[in-house]
Each structure stands twice: as structure tokens, then as C-alpha cells.
Known about the structure:
By secondary structure, the chain is mainly beta. It is built from 2 helices and 16 strands.
Amino acid sequence: xxxxxxxxxxxxxxxxxxxxxxxxxxxxxxxxxxxxxxxxxxxxxxxxxxxxxxxxxxxxxxxxxxxxxxxxxxxxxxxxxxxxxxxxxxxxxxxxxxxxxxxxxxxxxxxxxxxxxxxxxxxxxxxxxxxxxxxxxxxxxxxxxxxxxxxxxxxxxxxxxxxxxxxxxxxxxxxxxxxxxxxxxxxxxxxxxxxxxxxxxx
Length: 202
């Protein structure tokens, strides 16, 4: 991508490849140490989505993300979800009593599905809460990255459904992104930020 431009990644936009539709951008994954975008989670739905390295992105805008790979290449990437069968001990309520006078236990297999996130990195979803220093300020909408894939802004939506506005928070004001997005700005400071023209990016 152009090293001198910035690119908005609106979580929830459509994603296309060199030969067709790939589905939706469901999540973004970042390295919290370098504050760089590393992967996109892309697919028709979250259960069939793939972990797409950001190096496979050709362009990004408020309307769509375009990949430089084919749909076949996408299918060969790692799944964004993992499923495991785990054993858990449960009390046997059938009335059998052990030699110690307590209910016996038996193992039960359970299927657990979870999001795959590379070690040391964190994921961000559309709609996660954004927390100002003095309370919740809005919901996450996406990110803006530069040509080196380093995040420059996080995008949030403020207000009620009838009066929403999108605000771009400079990444240097993000202190944590593990449980929602934590800012070092107050609500008033967020509201006083200048607007960013996302439509002109990309």
C-alpha cells in the first residue's frame, strides 16, 4: 500500500479478493507493544473466518477492504476459531456413594470454541466499549493505519442512534485494549478533538 497514505478499517465492511467476495471484516488484531495492525479476521461468518495477515491487504476504505490474494488462498489460511474437546469432572447425582461418603465424580467431555489470537497480541471488535478517563465515551468502530500498518487512530461512535457521530482518537491516547479500549483522555477532551475526513483516506 502507499506508504504516504492512511487507510481506514471499518469493522463490518465487505472484503473482496482478486477473484471474488470474501465476506466481512469481523475483527482486527493488533500488537499492543508496537501498536501495529497484524491480522484481519475475514469470512462469510465468524465460524468460517480466517486469520488474514495484513500484508495481504491491497487497499482499505470506509466501503471495503481489498485483498491481493484469491479466495482459494484465503481458504488455505489459518481458521480464526479453534475448537477443542476438554474433559471436566462432574458430580454423579445418580445416588452412588463413594467409600468416603460423598458423591462420586465422572469425567464429561465438552466442546469449547474460542477465538484464535496470535500470542502477545489482542483483538478488537466492532461495538466494544471505549472508556475515557472519567467514564464510557462510545463504541469502537474501527482503526486507521498508515502505510507501514501502524495504527494512527481508533474510531469510535458517540451518541444515540439518532445523533451519532464518528470520532478519531489518536493512538497515543490508547493505554489498553484488552477489555475494551481504555483512553487517557476525559470525555470533554474526546469531544473537543478535531474531525478526521475518513472518506479522503485510502
